[in-house]
Design brief:
The chain is an alpha/beta fold. It has 20 helices and 14 strands. Helix 4 packs across helix 9 and helix 15 packs parallel to helix 16.
Length: 556
């Protein structure tokens, strides 16, 4: 037994002999150095692109930025570090840094508060699509191996008194280095961050730590019940006596630059093009992700006055419609309505009901047409139904359409976009729009058949998508630097003659506004106007139908 114990000790000693024992603080310094050198490639590329170095002094300036980054991470980490906590803490930070560097490097993502909101609101289906073989391999190399080294690295034994003294010494030294390096780099660094403030969202892993802290700090308790808005809303009676039915279709991740009706050279909307629709070609989104755009679209505030806390604590457009006497329902084929539909009837397509359109991972958007068809025959009152599409949600564009719509080839048939050519990614994305075009055409066909109703349809996407332009993919960039591919969205209107008559809507007048610069800001107020709803909360300046109504009847 003594021999076996001695051999085990010798084996452990030999396995660790090449790693010198370090203090927890020194191990943290090595980790912070690793973050700066190996997990911030996107940051350094962006800095060099913003201020190309031309001499030795410029390269020295970059070294100074690196010292600031190391010292800053050290100052944040050191108060939490001791012999017991250092390895679990660094392991979590390495895993976080590796994950962030993958998405910033491969997709051009920026981890601001909105991106953190997206992460926190992502459901298992969306998360599963992002868990690609490429990501797994990257995490094995940039998280698994470093974490193995961290756990194998021996730590020095010290008394708690000496350990506390060393911690204070390290913290004081790190603060000193941070202050000196900031002073030496202040002029250039402040200019860089002032002119390119988005760079702060690339500093890994600090970007996620700070943004998460801001999200948590802002997540204060809300009122138990949402505060009402538009309680004075009253609808004008239908001029024809027929109940009005508006189907609002909220698209997902569809950009205007790939929308056939908006001038895209490739015809991705052939069926809508054969319809008598009005396409609004210059529409800006409120945000670059669903977590921002969707609540904003249904709020009276608009982008300029966007206030997440106000929106979460107040009713939405759907509640105003209810106050006016409309029946309202939300049918969701997405990951939820982000609180917009909390006060109204809500349901999702049941996969068992539509086996040809659904599987274990969800349903194609054709199931929304089936859901509308199932309930439309029972509508006897003024009604608004919102259909929330899965649309072009990436990166699995190839899963958003059936095989019959695989028209543009070759396609990217994986969620790991790094494995595909840009051409195949665009083809898959465009095929998904072809399918959306088909779904919208089927919905319009269904509405045309309802002779007892005055029917209309509005389609509008929540935000756009980058497909490799300037090396950027997906969406979610800070709005100030987001390309138009992420901020310009399609909006298309169709209405039956019966609806135009019931609403007193002059179609030619509305069509004349098709090329005006519009935004999600107009949606709230325009829908109230088109549906004949008067309320103090409606801003006539943001109602695109304001001048397009014939004299109205009396309030219902």
């Amino acid at each position: 037994m003594p021999d076996s114990i001695s051999l085990a000790r010798l084996g452990r000693a030999l396995s660790r002999s090449w790693l010198p024992a370090l203090s927890p603080q020194a191990l943290t310094l090595l980790a912070c150095l690793g973050f700066t050198l190996f997990y911030n490639q996107r940051f350094w590329s962006a800095v060099i692109e913003a201020e190309p170095p031309t001499g030795v002094g410029d390269w020295g300036q970059l070294v100074g930025y690196g010292v600031v980054m190391i010292a800053l991470h050290l100052v944040v980490c050191l108060p939490l570090v001791n012999r017991l906590s250092v390895k679990p803490l660094l392991s979590l930070l390495v895993l976080l840094a590796a994950s962030i560097s993958y998405f910033t490097g491969h997709y051009g993502a920026y981890f601001d508060t909105h991106m953190i909101d997206n992460v926190l609101q992502t459901d298992t289906r969306e998360a599963g699509e992002l868990l690609t073989p490429g990501l797994v391999l990257y995490l094995l190399l940039f998280a698994g191996l470093p974490m193995l080294v961290i756990w194998r690295w021996p730590l020095r034994q010290r008394s708690w008194q000496r350990g506390l003294g060393m911690s204070l010494l390290w913290l004081g030294g790190s603060l000193g280095v941070l202050v000196v390096s900031l002073l030496l780099s202040f002029q250039s660094l402040s200019s860089l961050m002032r002119n390119h403030h988005e760079l702060r969202y690339l500093v890994t892993p600090g970007n996620a730590l700070v943004s998460t802290g801001q999200v948590m700090a802002a997540d204060a308790p809300l009122p138990e019940e949402r505060l009402p808005i538009g309680e004075d809303a009253a609808r004008q009676a239908s001029a024809t006596g027929k109940p009005r039915l508006l189907v609002m279709v909220v698209g997902e991740t569809v950009r205007a630059s790939s929308w056939g009706l908006s001038g895209y050279p490739r015809q991705t909307t052939p069926r809508l093009a054969s319809r008598d629709v009005i396409n609004f070609s210059e529409v800006a989104s409120c945000g670059t992700n669903t977590a921002v755009s969707l609540p904003c679209m249904f709020s009276p505030l608009g982008k300029a006055n966007y206030d997440e806390r106000y929106i979460r604590s107040h009713e939405s457009l759907l509640d105003v419609l209810k106050h006016a006497g409309y029946q309202v329902a939300w049918i969701d084929n997405q990951s939820g309505c982000k609180g917009v539909c909390d006060g109204v009837e809500r349901q999702s397509p049941a996969p068992d009901a539509y086996p040809t359109l659904c599987n274990d991972s969800g349903c194609l958007d054709g199931a929304l047409t089936k859901e509308l068809s199932r309930r439309i025959g029972s509508i006897r009152e003024d009604t608004v139904i919102v259909l929330h599409m899965l649309g072009n949600h990436g990166p699995s564009y190839f899963q958003r359409y059936p095989e019959a719509f695989r028209v543009f080839t070759p396609t990217c048939d994986t969620a790991d976009l790094a494995q595909c050519s840009r051409e195949s990614i665009v083809n898959s994305y465009d095929n998904a729009i072809l399918y959306t075009d088909n779904v919208l055409d089927d919905l319009i066909g269904l509405l045309e058949q309802q002779t007892s109703l005055a029917t209309a349809l509005l389609y509008i996407s929540d935000h756009g998508e980058s497909l490799g332009e300037k090396g950027i993919y997906l969406h979610g960039l800070p709005y100030a630097i987001a390309p138009e591919e992420q901020t310009r969205v399609p909006m298309t209107w169709w209405s039956s003659r019966a609806f135009d008559q019931a609403a007193g809507l002059e179609r030619g007048c509305l069509a004349s506004r098709a090329d005006q610069s519009l935004s999600h800001d107009h949606l709230f107020h325009s829908l109230l106007g088109m549906l004949g709803i008067e309320s103090a909360i409606r801003d006539p300046r943001l109602d695109i139908s304001q001048a397009c109504h014939s004299p109205k009847g009396t309030a219902a």
